[in-house]
Design brief:
With about 120 residues, the chain is mainly beta. About 10% of the residues lie in helices and about 45% in strands. The strands form two sheets. A seven-stranded mixed β-sheet has the order 6-5-8-3-2-1-9. A hairpin with a 4-residue loop joins β1 and β2. It is globular, with a radius of gyration of 13 Å.
Length: about 120
């Protein structure tokens, strides 16, 4: 798969996730983390456009962060177990992360995020 790689920071440029793969194709959005090993604590998958995710076929729970068009956090699910669905009406993108990765980062509803592309 060809994905864009970068990282996410908060509004003050403090790094939240150092290794983020950003989807570029429908097939990447469709599969998400389905066939991937569990992410490390600083890694994530940014799926866009996206307002709903599923964990059908997953073998592990994932943390989910729904993000609106202004890159603000609108919903956080610390642990979405396998065979579940989650959505957020105004989400434009979804960040899938290792649940333990969310535990060490103090994300809050309304928090502004920034995308940085690796060059």
């Amino acid at each position: 798969m060809i994905m864009i790689h970068g990282y996410l920071t908060d509004r003050d440029d403090h790094c939240l996730f150092a290794e983020v793969a950003r989807t570029t194709r429908f097939s990447e959005r469709l599969c998400g983390l389905l066939f991937s090993p569990r992410f490390g604590k600083n890694a994530a998958l940014l799926i866009e456009p996206c307002s709903a995710v599923h964990t059908f076929g997953m073998r592990y729970a994932v943390g989910i962060v729904f993000i609106d068009q202004d890159w603000r956090v609108i919903k956080i699910i610390k642990s979405l177990k396998p065979w579940r669905i989650a959505s957020a009406d105004k989400a434009c993108s979804v960040l899938e992360v290792n649940g333990a990765g969310l535990e060490k980062i103090d994300l809050t509803h309304g928090q502004q995020l920034k995308w940085h592309c690796h060059e």
